[in-house]
Structure prediction request, 301 residues.
Amino acid sequence: MARDLLPSIGALVAFESAARHLSFSRAAAELHLTQGAISRQVRELETRLGLPLFERVNQRVFLTDAGEAYRLEVTRILAGLSAATERTMASAGGAEVLNLAVLPTFAARWLVPRLPKFLADHPQATVNFAVRNEPFSFADASLDAAIHFGEPTWPGAVCEFLCTEEVYPVASPAIRDRFGLDDVAAIVQAPLLHQSSRPTAWADWFAAGGLPTAGSYRGSRFDQFSMIAEAAVADMGVALMPRFMIEAELATGRLALLTERPLGAGKAYWFVYPEARVRSRLVRAFGEWLKVEAAAPSASV
Prediction:
């Protein structure tokens, strides 16, 4: 590493703030410095780099192409440094920290209610959560592992199987009675609720049961299963839901299973971590605990 090429953290922070605001005065206010101090830091950075990062036009500043490219890298580096600092501070006194990427509904409805059991067995552990709905590069994120739904394909990472998923048609008692849904064939006449990332789910369920698929794409669409669950409780229609996500609603009678015939999603949940974390004691322990929980009959998804 050519350390003599490295700019100071202060210069990078000043540049990032000025680039984000496109204003030296706003950067100065944010960092509790003078505008002259920000200008000096940026000017010294430009001198070190040998090129301009900003264009100055009519008392306004704009990033050059090189400045925009540099901003993206500096933002990533500062975020990583901040996260590394937080992790190190959090590990004081022997604490272990796991930064986990999660699917929001899976985390809220399945993982978090079970997490106290893991923490009771690992009192030095802290688990932090960050929402990620799609695969990402571990090299560009300050995360140790992820819960992933889909195929076991994640470059540079290990994918450990947790469980498959089955979805069931559910509705509020009011919708069930209004449309006579004790006869599952009547579902084709009821309003349908859809998960946006699974547009063919209802068509697949109808086809698997030998029911007509015409009209299976009509109805409201939602980005998250948690929103679909609330819509079903609010009498908006019939939903295809993983059973584990609506345990509370089923227990209280706010939702009812319309049949015990599920539809397999054809995909699975996976515990994913970068190859560089293979030897991490906490990552291994958490993965093993997840697999035990997912395999338990009462925890089936």
About this structure: The two ends are 48 Å apart (CA to CA). The mean pLDDT is 89. DSSP finds ten helices and eleven strands in the chain.
